Amino acid sequence: VRCSPDGAEATPITFDRARVRDLFSLGFVERHQDVIFLGPVGVGKTFLACALGHAACRAGHQVRFLRADHLLQRLHQSRADHSTEKVLRGLLAPDILIIDDFGLRRLDAQQSSDLYEVLLERHRRASTIVTSNLPFDEWTSVFGSERLTGALLDRLTHYVHILEMNGDSYRLAHSKRRSR
Q: Which pLDDT band holds residue 4 (cuts at 50, 70, 90)?
């Protein structure tokens, strides 16, 4: 147990450290498996996703990092300038595509379809790492369609390493310490 800056007990950040260590062997990349980090804000999901991406780069793999909203914005813009095929190729090409902060906003029908298409095309061809604050049972509210969510989760969770992280926000605790 650790103490928060105000002296109250804070919940430590917990996750399966052995599974994370195993991911750093990068076998999941060779097997074209996906990784999903789930948990509340500030527990290190993005940090671990980036660390895995960095390790993969150092091992010679091609990695691309995009926040979910930026990925969807790029696809939307590509329709206007007729570069959708080029943008899709850029999303399908890397050995690892990291999609950060999935589920912060509800998707419209086109965005849901776009994200489904990207993940479907990457399935079993290349690895995707997704970070999200939402448990799977809340993903339907983001996609707006049970059928689409079910189809996506069926593929995304087929060959996947799911790491659930819990605890208090590291950034919030750090900010409170600085303000003392």
A: very low
Token couple for 56: 């993969």
Assigned token pair, 48: 């671990």
State whether residue 130 is helix, strand or coil. Answer: strand
Residue with tokens 């790492």: 129
What sign for the dihedral angle of Cα 148, 154, 159, 163? positive
**Distances, alpha carbon 161 to alpha carbons 8, 86, 107, in Å:** 34, 29, 25
| CA separation for the pair 131, 102 (Å, rounded) | 6
Q: Which residues pair with 162 in a beta bridge?
A: 36
Predicted TM-score (pTM) of the model is 0.88
H or E element in which residue 160 lies = strand 160-164
